[in-house]
Amino acid sequence: MLLDVSVPHQKYIEDCEVCCNPIEVSLSFENNELISFESNSLEQ
Question: How do the domains of the chain map onto residue ranges?
């Protein structure tokens, strides 16, 4: 998974590269450093 540091706060849905199930990704950067990262499966 590639992360874009140009956007400080991000939340998006991406398909898993292994199983293709959707994953909700939330992350934050400060001074181009990752300060928080969370991922949750949306598969029920």
Answer: 9-41
